[in-house]
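Sequence in, structure out. Go.
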Amino acid sequence: MILFERWKKTAIHNKALVLTGFLVAFGTLFYAGAAVFQYCLMKDTAKAAAEQTKILIGEMQNQTKAMQDAANATMNTVKVAERNIKSTQEQFRLDQRAWISITKANFREPLDAKKKAVIDFVVKNSGKTPALHLRGSYETWYQHLGTASLKVGKTISGEIAYGPGDEKVTFIGWDEPLLQAQIDLMQSGQEILFIEIKFIYFDIYNSKIPHHTCTCFFYDSKAAINGALSLCETGCSYMD
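Output:
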């Protein structure tokens, strides 16, 4: 009551000052409350945005991983396809390429100290395409009572081509007739003649990588029929 009486006695300009101060204080509190509310709202919004961003980043990472996995799977599929294509091409080439073999060898005539010895042998291309730039060589040596002599090597003249299925007789000739004493040793089985025949050639699919054929024969008079040579149990015998 006293406060009310005092307020009635207060001058109008003082009352205005009081009311103004009250309004300013109220406004300050209002704006402070609004600022706090806005801060809390922004904080919640930022937190929600951060959570949403985190979710989006996780989804993007999952999508990126899925895309990478798909790319890796595609790459693996391509690699498998490339290997299959190469394997198919290699199988086709192996089936179609030239294959040179030496099928048999024999003395052309009975051994005679008055004649130069000649060995005929058959070279065959069992492949389906030509063999190109065929070049040959051979080595001969003797084995006397288990002891081998030095090998003597020579080239087979010519650089020729063999068509598919071609089978040709080629020969090797001695420069001089064999001595009768050596013929006697061979005929008695005390001395055995060995010969390795080698060929190098190319197929039509690759002019840089050569192929090789090597076959070993020996002459055993006890087993020979019409001067035929036998295949060696050891020694070179391969085709690539």
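Check: The CA atoms of residues 215 and 236 lie 6 Å apart. The chain has a mean pLDDT of 83.
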